[in-house]
Design goal:
This protein has 306 residues and is an alpha/beta fold. The protein has a single domain, classed as 3-Layer(aba) Sandwich (Rossmann fold). It contains eight helices and eleven strands. The strands form three sheets. A seven-stranded mixed beta sheet has the order 2-1-3-4-11-10-9, covered by helices on one side. The longest helix has 15 residues. The N terminus is likely disordered.
């Protein structure tokens, strides 16, 4: 009888599903500090929405740790992460560039940890983080090369890739950065969202984020620009860059939201469902957790014609 009990226990253990507790992937979400106006750069509300949607999907494939207001995870947590998602401001204030954070990320990337960067988080500095971003996620915003206009992007076709599972063509108005600095020859990089920016994106004067002769020539030639991409690294890790996300309301677009949720699973090496990560949110969900910012004042009325 004792042998039978042990045999049944062994069989039960062998039949345990692959998504049992020990097999779960750890997703670490990092939100930057508040910035910009009401409904813009809502990093905290954005990552909390990602968390809600991933938990709502109930794949049983991931555990989630969320850090708000640029709080940086401890090393013992980073060591266990299967992917790290950063949604924050960039440049010199990028949370990944503070203290020893870049070196800490480098340690995790070498072991094959995934990395997802959303909107301004795709911009480190050229001097610090630029080469790492090109290596880790395949591309980066580079001042005096990349640009950040607001425009209506229309993604009419999508490539076959796990991150596009269940995602239909869509169009949104956002601050879609483009003319990113990608790896030479796009080695290992798969463009995911691409469109030809309208000529109005070049209405601004040349500047570090506004324009330069090279990008002007490409827009005039109607060269498609990549605003989201995926990369598979030589170290076995995966990266994903997404330049939209300026407006929090954009996450109300089911296909935009699904694309990023898919990418989080894919970079964690969790299975992406054939139909993508399904989630349902309401207008009330989009209003939750917004940073306490004053709404933009209404424009002053024009003086009456005399």
């Amino acid at each position: 009888m004792k042998k039978l009990t042990l045999l049944l226990a062994a069989l039960a253990f062998t039949a345990a599903p692959a998504f049992a507790e020990g097999a779960k992937k750890l997703v670490v979400l990092i939100a930057g500090k508040p910035s910009h106006g009401h409904g813009e750069h809502e990093h905290n509300a954005g990552v909390l929405l990602f968390q809600k949607c991933l938990e709502q999907h109930s794949t049983g494939l991931v555990d989630i740790k969320t850090h708000l207001n640029a709080d940086w995870p401890a090393m013992d947590e980073l060591d266990k992460a299967d992917t790290i998602v950063i949604y924050s401001d960039g440049g010199g204030g990028h949370p990944a560039l503070q203290g020893d954070h870049l070196a800490e990320l480098g340690k995790e990337m070498k072991r094959g940890c995934g990395l997802v960067c959303v909107h301004y988080a795709t911009e480190p500095t050229k001097e610090k983080g630029g080469n790492e971003w090109i290596d880790w996620i395949g591309g980066a915003f580079e001042v005096n090369w990349s640009v950040n206009p607001h425009w209506q992007a229309d993604f009419k076709t999508l490539p076959a890739h796990p991150v596009t599972s269940g995602v239909k063509p869509f169009s949104t108005n956002d601050e879609w950065y483009f003319h990113m600095h990608f790896r030479d020859g796009m080695t290992g990089v798969t463009p995911i969202l691409s469109d030809v920016p309208p000529e109005t994106t070049m209405n601004r004067k040349d500047g570090p984020h506004e324009g330069n002769p090279t990008v002007r020539a490409e827009v005039a030639a109607k060269k498609p620009q990549h605003v989201a991409w995926a990369v598979e690294r030589a170290d076995g890790g995966r990266g994903f860059g997404f330049t939209g996300g300026h407006f929090h309301k954009g996450w109300g677009n089911d296909d935009q939201r699904k694309l990023v949720l898919n990418a989080i699973l894919w970079t964690a090496k969790a299975e992406v469902p054939a139909g993508g990560v399904e989630s349902a949110i309401t207008a009330e969900d989009l209003e939750q957790n917004l940073d306490p910012k004053a709404p933009k004042p209404a424009p002053a009325p024009k003086p009456a014609a005399k």
